[in-house]
Amino acid sequence: MLNKNQLFVLGGTCLLLLIPLIGMLFTSEINWSLGDFIVMGILLSGLGFICEFVFRRISNKAYKLTLIASLVIVFLLIWIELAVGVFNSPFAGS
Fold this sequence. Notes:
The structure is a single chain. By secondary structure, the chain is mainly alpha-helical. It has one domain. Helices cover about 75% and strands about 0% of the residues. It has three helices and no strands. Keywords: Membrane, Transmembrane, Transmembrane helix.
């Protein structure tokens, strides 16, 4: 059973994924496939669940802040690599 915070993570993920979905209705500049939505949903919900876990389990505020900041940086690096292939890895398909 999911607790209130985990339901909030899932709801937030769905709301964030609505942004490109609605944007695709108004412009041809946004062109996401089903796979893009799935990958971003996994990334966003994974980040949310891991952050929620860290908030519940870690009591040291400095360690908690450092860990959350590190997770967000890793998330952003993966997102950037998938979006534009900054590092030219096969991970991004470039």
